[in-house]
Amino acid sequence: MDTMRDRFAPVVSRLLDEDPRVAVVLAEVGKDGFAEAMRRHPDRVVNVGIREQLLVGAAAGLALTGMRPVVHTFASFLVERPFEQVKLDLGHQDAGAVLVSAAASFDWPAGGYTHMAPGDVALLDTLDGWTVHVPGHPDEAETLLRHAVAAGDDKVYVRLSVQANAGGRPVDGESFLPVRQGRSGVVVAVGPLLDSVLDATEGMDVTVLYATTVRPFDGAALRRATGTAGTDVVLIEPYLAGTSAGAVDEALSDVPHRVLGLGVGRRELRRYGRVEEHAAAHGLDARSLRERIGGFLGQGR
């Protein structure tokens, strides 16, 4: 199966052909995928070199002229390093752009901690007005990329990952998708963690909601699910644990509820290893998830 990032350049290259407003801004990373698009649209595919602050600043400038910039590099260089530009050049100026990241939380362990960004979504949460998509399959990535580019002048973050579920699901860029019904708790599985969550909850009497758009947070879907499954909620995210716990609290603010937030821990893992080893170390493999979900919801292992 191809990866989400394998879909990125072909999809956006087609969007360049289809929409004269679309522009692509790169900082070396991913430029080979746009070689042909750059030949066809030399004025709308810009590589600024290894200058991530300029990457975001140039995108904001294009947006202020009426363009729809798509900006791409590793998550740590797209959200964390140029955060001041994300905050001011885009946010303060009400300039819209589509930020598309790669390498996610620990997708490239050999790159070390400089190339990991488990806090990216939490950092964007300090700003107003961002839509955040977290696809769990390449097909979903393609759909959500198109949603993001078509979203007027909105600020959108699309978080691509090498981790993926076995199959894609029909996503609409807004809603949580119920994939399992139960009566003894709600488990919200975000993006590429769905398969592990389904394996972990096999035989448990729980409702599983699948989230690929986490900002805005679909509180209405969560409330509907808790109406039949109870108000114990387990939130499982492929980035910093508890990132969306506040959104759960807000959605259920008028009813007693409990929330368990699972995700990437704050402790830095200083060994490279493999992606699967990092997932297990953070308790995001199916076996660990089953133990933690079952313990919280009082269901047997």
Please compute the radius of gyration using only Cα atoms. 19 Å
Number of strands: 12
CATH H level of the largest domain: which superfamily? Thiamin diphosphate (ThDP)-binding fold, Pyr/PP domains
Q: Shape, please?
A: globular
> Percent of residues in helical segments?
25-40%
Number of helices: 12
Low-confidence stretches: none
Mean pLDDT: 96
Class of the largest domain in CATH? Alpha Beta
Main sheet attributes: strand count, strand direction, barrel closure? 7 strands, mixed
Distance between the termini: 32 Å
Number of domains: 2
Helix/strand order: HEHEHEHHEHEHEEEHEEHEHEHH
The spatial strand order of the largest sheet comes to 2-1-3-4-6-5-10
Protein name: Transketolase
Pfam families: Transket_pyr (PF02779)
Organism: Streptomyces leeuwenhoekii
InterPro entries: PDH/Transketolase, THDP-binding, Transketo_C/PFOR_II, Transketolase-like_Pyr-bd
Explain how this protein is built.
- The chain is an alpha/beta fold and 301 residues long.
- The protein folds into two domains: 4-159, Rossmann fold, CATH 3.40.50; 177-297, Rossmann fold.
- It is 37% helix and 21% strand.
- The chain contains twelve helices and twelve strands.
- The chain has helices spanning 4-18, 35-40, 52-64, 75-80, 83-92, 120-124, 138-150, 194-200, 219-229, 245-251, 275-281, 286-297, and strands at 22-26, 45-47, 68-74, 98-102, 130-133, 155-159, 177-180, 186-190, 207-211, 213-215, 232-240, 258-264.
- The strands form two sheets. A seven-stranded mixed beta sheet has the order 2-1-3-4-6-5-10, with helices on both faces.
- α7 (138-150) links the parallel β5 and β6 (155-159).
- The longest helix has 15 residues, at 4-18.
- The chain is globular and about 60 Å long.
- InterPro entries: PDH/Transketolase (IPR051157), THDP-binding (IPR029061), Transketo_C/PFOR_II (IPR009014), Transketolase-like_Pyr-bd (IPR005475).
- Residues 2-168 form the Transketolase-like pyrimidine-binding domain.
- It comes from Streptomyces leeuwenhoekii.
